[in-house]
Amino acid sequence: MAALLAAVPLAPALGADWNDPQEPFAIFGNTYYVGTRGLSSVLITSPAGHILIDGGSPKSPVQIVQHIGQLGFKIGDIKYILNSHEHFDHAGGIAELQRLSGATVLTSVEGERVLRTGKPSKGDPQYTELPPAMATVANTRAIKDGDIVRLGPLSVSAHYTPGHAQGGVSWTWRSTEGGRTAAMVYADSLNAISAGPFRYSANTSYPHARADLDKSIATVAAFECDVLVSAHPEGSGLWERLAKQATMGNAAFIDNNACRAYADGARARLARKLAAEAAEK
């Protein structure tokens, strides 16, 4: 698995196929995939209301809302929308989803500022290639590293994982099915992608980017992790596991090594990035 994930090509800044259609499906217990083919969005349900993680790009909400309905749930029952990081391909659809649901939007301090203002941070590693603005998001709130989002029986923990973006957050919770409780992880992107003059080895706009990414990789590797969904689903082998669901049921998504493999792939990509930057000198 680690070798497979290390070989996954980095997604382009403007992925033309990220919004290709994808049928929604149950992952485990009360956790469902409602995103597009290339952009993850996960719904965690409860009788007290639901929590949605990530809103895809500005084109994604049409599919996400449709998928939630297909599964028998209502967009108006979403009480919280959580964000992995503030790039347009994971946060660009949040403004519309918030408008439709009335939900409170939660993310890191850095991410909340971008969602609220619609303006990317000049310290972002991809700043020179990001859209100059996104739709501003209403009803946002910053959460701290380690905070727990509670809704009825749901408890979803925030783990700051910056480096790919300054406001990165990974999320963990538990889902139960058939008497088994699984440790669920929604992992933020850990890819060392930069644009323009930004260098992970040395820069002034985000001087601790490399240290942040190193720490974030270690954080994800250390998670208790039975089921992993990454912000880009192909980055954590989700489609390979989905292909086994027909014969294995939702147990197909359980892989106790998934977070370590995801982190190993990110660590290898960071090493290649730093080597390429060194070769430029």
Helix content: 25-40%
Number of extended strands: 12
CATH structural architecture:
4-Layer Sandwich
Q: Radius of gyration from the CA trace?
A: 17 Å
> Which stretches are low in confidence, meaning pLDDT under 50 for 5 or more residues running?
1-14
In the CATH scheme, the class would be Alpha Beta
| Main pleated-sheet profile | 7 strands, mixed
Which strand-content bin applies to the residues? 15-25%
Terminal CA distance reads: 34 Å
Order of helices and strands: HEEEEHEHHEHEEEEEHEHHH
The CATH topology: Metallo-beta-lactamase, Chain A
CATH superfamily: Ribonuclease Z/Hydroxyacylglutathione hydrolase-like
Mean pLDDT: 94
Strand line-up of the largest beta sheet: 1-2-3-4-5-6-7
Number of helices: 9
Query: What would you call the structural class?
Result: alpha/beta
Question: What global shape is seen?
Answer: globular
Please supply descriptive tags for the structure shown above:
281 residues; 9 helices; Metallo-beta-lactamase, Chain A; seven-stranded mixed sheet; disordered N terminus; alpha/beta
